[in-house]
């Protein structure tokens, strides 16, 4: 059969055996039905959720004259930007309830929870909020981005019971009503976005994030395959609840369970500790998909140049390794222990130095220092994370924070840990792929032939994922729950 896979700015074709299984999110196994997508219907559903929160009083009761509000919103990386996106609808619904309760417009601040991601540009603010909301709040200086290096606007809350440092945004800490608008959408880091993950990674300092986005946490057996029971997930929840304890009140959360196209399946509001598990129950029906009859010898997909974190993610070697590993984390349950990955990538050495100014230096160090595997680089985390030039670029030039690269490297080793070989197909600079320990071939057909000769034998069981990076991903499982390799704590698909 002939299939097309993501490659650079376009596609690359592959001729694969007719026995190949194909999975396309939202199509091969349909998502649960989404809510009606007209504004009025979504607004009514969101308002009903906000007025009937789980585990805490409604916003209107929390509101009052003179009370300050910070509405925390995910950055451009996830959540959809369509006119009826959850963010756009939920913000309007929250504002209606706040105003009805006596809050004044001047006492409301919008905070993008970018964490170690670049601060939102004006264009991104407009996409996320829509022009009406942007014009309403931007010119009165009521829209900003979290700055994890702005110590004047950070508060040190000590450590969790586990000893993890918690430094959070001072605007959020000081306000009377902190609102988290998030998305319950599959994420290889801890199972789902939204809930406590939103605040633990989005409005904290790099040292807080370094307590969980590191090899000691990401290379545990409870991290791969993905689940909601990993140590990373536990740390998210502990950090979020520690924030609430120190603030003296909980966050008011409004999370939407999203489908493949970022449409709302369900909306949950309230106290994250009790609301989060309930939203996961619905999200599990879309995210953890029982699909495979037998485990796969080969997993085939393509990598575009521009996705998720931005242009260059599919070309620079550090980000490329993270993207490969994310697929392993999601789909490990359906992979044989000696599984082979075949992935198309233009792999042209484009680092996007403005966006990731430190990655080229990290890559060069990996090539020339006494390194064996990517996690060996972790010892340089402090050196890079405190580099003032890289910090300046994060704060003022829309770059990622330098510690972000170390979370990518910690994740990037997981693909190597869980495969026999990884082939990069169509690399324009094959030496870059080889320098990361990957094999290179010109075509999918050549890579598959080599894999059959060396690793799988003549009749491999093949899984093809033609649109794995351009749609919201799922976590594939075995149809027989007994065959799922599950981490400690189990998983929604059994095992």
Plain-language structure description:
It is a single chain. The protein starts with a strand and ends in a 17-residue tail after the last strand. The protein folds into 2 domains: 2-30 and 294-478, LarA, C-terminal domain (2-enoyl-CoA Hydratase, Chain A, domain 1); 39-287, LarA, N-terminal domain (Rossmann fold, 3-Layer(aba) Sandwich), CATH 3.40.50. It is α/β, with parallel strands linked by helices and 495 residues long. It is 35% helix and 23% strand. Strands 1, 2, 3, 17, 20, 21, 22 and 23 form an 8-stranded mixed sheet that branches. The protein has a 6-stranded mixed sheet with strand order 8-7-6-11-14-15, with helices on both faces. A two-stranded parallel ribbon has the order 4-5. Helix 1 crosses helix 3 (86-100), helix 4 (122-129) packs across helix 5 (131-137) and helix 12 (317-331) packs across helix 16. It has 19 helices and 24 strands.
Shape-level CATH architecture of the largest domain: 3-Layer(aba) Sandwich
How confident overall, as mean pLDDT? 94
Structural class: alpha/beta
Q: Which class of the largest domain in CATH terms? A: Alpha Beta
Helix content: 25-40%
Q: How many DSSP helices?
A: 19
Radius of gyration: 22 Å
Distance between the termini: 33 Å
Whole-number count of domains: 2
Strand content: 15-25%
**CATH fold-level label of the largest domain:** Rossmann fold
Shape field: globular
- Low-pLDDT sequence parts: none
According to DSSP, the number of beta strands is: 24
In CATH, what is the homologous superfamily of the largest domain? LarA, N-terminal domain
């Amino acid at each position: 059969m002939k299939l097309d896979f993501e490659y650079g700015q376009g596609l690359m074709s592959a001729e694969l055996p007719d026995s190949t299984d194909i999975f396309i999110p939202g199509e091969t196994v349909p998502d649960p039905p989404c809510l009606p997508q007209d504004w009025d219907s979504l607004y009514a559903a969101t308002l009903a959720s906000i007025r009937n929160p789980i585990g805490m009083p409604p916003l209107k009761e929390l509101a009052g004259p003179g009370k300050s509000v910070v509405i925390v919103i995910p950055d451009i990386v996830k959540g959809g930007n369509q006119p009826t996106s959850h963010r756009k609808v939920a913000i309007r619904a929250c504002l209606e309830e706040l105003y009805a309760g006596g809050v004044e417009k001047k006492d409301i601040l919008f905070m993008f929870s970018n964490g170690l991601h670049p601060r939102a540009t004006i264009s991104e603010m407009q996409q996320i909020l829509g022009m009406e909301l942007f014009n309403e709040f931007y010119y009165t200086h009521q829209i900003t981005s979290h700055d994890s290096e702005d110590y004047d606007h950070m508060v040190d809350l000590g450590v969790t019971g586990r000893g993890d440092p918690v430094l959070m945004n001072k605007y959020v800490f000081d306000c009377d009503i902190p609102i988290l608008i998030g998305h319950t959408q599959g994420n290889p880091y801890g199972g789902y976005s939204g809930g406590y993950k939103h605040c633990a990674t989005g409005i904290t300092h790099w040292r807080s994030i370094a307590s969980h986005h590191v090899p000691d946490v990401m290379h545990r057996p409870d991290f791969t395959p993905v689940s909601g029971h990993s140590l990373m997930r536990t740390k998210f929840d502990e950090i979020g609840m520690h924030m609430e304890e120190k603030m003296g009140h909980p966050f008011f959360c409004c999370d939407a369970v999203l489908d493949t196209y970022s449409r709302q399946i369900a909306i949950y509001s309230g106290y994250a500790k009790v609301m989060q598990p309930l939203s996961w129950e619905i999200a599990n029906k879309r995210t953890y998909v029982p699909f495979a009859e037998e485990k796969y010898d080969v997993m085939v997909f393509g990598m575009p140049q521009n996705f998720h974190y931005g242009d260059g993610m599919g070309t620079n070697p550090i980000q490329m390794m993270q993207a490969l590993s994310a697929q392993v984390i999601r789909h490990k349950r359906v992979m044989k222990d000696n599984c082979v990955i075949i992935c198309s990538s233009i792999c042209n050495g484009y680092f996007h130095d403005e966006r990731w100014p430190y990655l080229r230096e990290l890559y060069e160090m990996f090539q020339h220092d006494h390194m064996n595997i990517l996690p060996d680089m972790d010892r340089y985390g402090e050196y890079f994370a405190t580099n003032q030039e890289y910090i300046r670029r994060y704060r003022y030039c829309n770059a990622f924070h330098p510690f972000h690269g170390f979370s990518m490297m910690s994740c990037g080793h997981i693909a190597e840990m869980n495969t026999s070989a990884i082939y990069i197909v169509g690399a324009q600079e094959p030496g870059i792929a080889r320098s990361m320990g990957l094999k290179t071939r010109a075509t999918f057909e050549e890579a598959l032939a080599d894999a059959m000769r060396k690793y799988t034998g003549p009749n491999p069981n093949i899984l093809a994922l033609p649109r794995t990076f351009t749609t919201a991903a799922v976590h594939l499982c075995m149809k027989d729950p007994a065959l799922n390799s599950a981490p400690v704590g189990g998983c929604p698909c059994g095992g």
